[in-house]
Design goal:
The chain is an alpha+beta fold. It is built from seven helices and four strands; from the N terminus they run E-H-H-E-H-H-E-H-H-E-H. The structure holds cytidine-5'-diphosphate and magnesium ion (MG).
Length: 137
């Protein structure tokens, strides 16, 4: 078993797609080990995405991620990091495969509905950024 960190981003929450996305997560066999709705401040979003601080999209990305509530989750499954990224699809919804969440719920590369950790080290950092140990069952 492996754990990964996932976000239903503000665009998906705004369009009331969170329930459908959660149903797809559970339908794909992930166990939801922790879940909370939060509204990140701009500095909190900047801390979360610090690896991208030198990218041209950093300002827009952190504005977007602090633009409204999102749902942060710990998902568990065999090979969860890869499985969750496969279910999300490519970063750009226009390039995401049919049947992926970003294809179905994302509007553009900067409004792409979901986030997922890309490696065990980032999953550990990202889970720890939002969840205390006692919240992770
Ligand atoms: O989220 P993912 O790991 O697939 O992509 P990333 O390369 O780690 O980029 C993080 C996030 O930045 C993406 O999910 C997009 O929301 C955003 N982004 C953007 O707005 N414009 C880009 N050219 C690239 C990424
Ligand atoms: Mg990434």
């Amino acid at each position: 078993m492996q754990r990964t960190f996932a976000i239903i981003k503000p665009d998906a929450v705004r369009k009331q797609a969170a329930g459908q996305i959660l149903a797809r997560i559970e339908g794909a066999g992930f166990a939801v080990r922790a879940l909370r709705m939060i509204h990140m401040s701009k500095p909190e979003a900047e801390g979360f995405y610090h690896v991208h601080r030198d990218k041209p999209f950093f300002g827009g990305l952190t504005d977007f991620m602090s633009s409204g509530p999102c749902i942060v989750m710990c998902l568990e499954a065999p090979d969860a990091i890869r499985q969750w990224r496969d279910l999300m699809g490519a970063t750009d919804p226009a390039k995401a495969a049919p049947g992926t969440l970003r294809k179905d719920f994302g509007a553009s590369i900067d409004n792409n509905a979901t986030h997922g950790s890309d490696a065990p080290e980032t999953a550990a950092f990202e889970l720890g950024y939002f969840f205390r140990g006692m919240e992770l069952r």
